[in-house]
Amino acid sequence: MALETELVEAIEAGAVNPQRWDLEALRAAGLGPCSETQIEEERVSVLRRQSARSRDVTKFSLAIMPTSQCNLACGYGGQAHRAGNMSPAIEDRALARVRGAIQRLRESHRSLSIGWFGGEPLLGFASIRRLSEGIRNLTSEAGVAWTSHMATNAVYLSADKARILAEESHLRAIEVTLDGPPTVHHASRPAKSGPQETFSRIVQNLRDIGDSSACDAIEISIRINVHQGNMASTPALISILEDNGFATPRFLINVVPVHDWGSSHAEGKVAAEAFQQWELELCNDLDLRGFTVSLFPTSPIETPCLATSLGSELIATNGRVFTCTEEVLSPGLDPSSSVGHVTLLDPALPRPAGTYDSWSEDLLTSPTAPCPSCAVLPLCGGACPKQWREGKTPCPTWKGTMPQRLDILARRLGLEPRDHKEAA
Ligand code: SF4
Ligand code: SF4
Hints:
By secondary structure, the chain is of the alpha/beta class.
């Protein structure tokens, strides 16, 4: 949420003292209760901004799948892994699309964002290095900055490899999944090649990356996918993370409920309400123990996801171009959900329109659209159009526990939380 300039000035001038905030002080500073008209005006303005961003092809985010193979077989993944890495011919066409996108970039926004996905992207390490070299050449010629991020299981992410990726691929963030203490993690994410001690290897890799000054630029996020089978063991995982020195700002903990992925139905999903309360208690505990935990987004999102922006696309290992990350490896959905192939698309043009490009516009104009009066729309943007269309409700879990999460934030800032009933 952005603060009005007047409010910032009022705080700086001492008119609003964070030690004695009350309704009158907030109202005097312009942060009092809004009228229905003001709320509607804000909703329209937020959605107009998101809709304009959805159509904006002068910014470019590219997700690349250098491989569709994975060394792990997660029970809840819903992915159909296939043999094969990206071929040099497809890499060249992917680079042609980067070149085309660079030519469209606005003068005021000369940067690119690249995401490495899989499968397990590190199984396509050679392809990542070749693509990165190509992107480096294109961007340095054009004076464009770029960074990349990666979703990886980190089994093969040694500190040395992370350093190479930080240097060559401008890697600035990784998201690594741990699903429980070793036995639970190995049951949830077993190695395809037979029983292996992947848990301790991942933890050691993360420790090495965290300790390496050459990897300082890489943000490390640890994701815990929660389902009925690992909920009870999550506290044991947290203790292991604590013992390994992960309760610091260097590591962000991100707890995520398992949901139906692609066209599959996840087994052992936890009911939304039960998950919310459980997650809230976990976040509180993590915060008290010094972990860095994400409570809720702190700035408005531009668009909900890759699939809702014409300036974003995903190039799969076989060269097909997708808009929605979950459609790529979902059995039965490829190739029908693809918007084209890199060998056939004109690299000078943005990708063809996809199913969800008009999402923000639909929220604005359709009387039957979801999220009509949601207070957190600026932070959420409607979460996942695909799930709404499938008749699910993809609201993020933080939505239902915002007051308590604000209390945790207040405690972090040294303020005393009040009882919510008393405050009401
Ligand atoms: S539509 Fe949903 S599943 Fe597809 S990329 Fe967006 S958030 Fe992900
Ligand atoms: S929290 Fe739910 S209702 Fe609100 S904007 Fe997000 S998806 Fe829509």
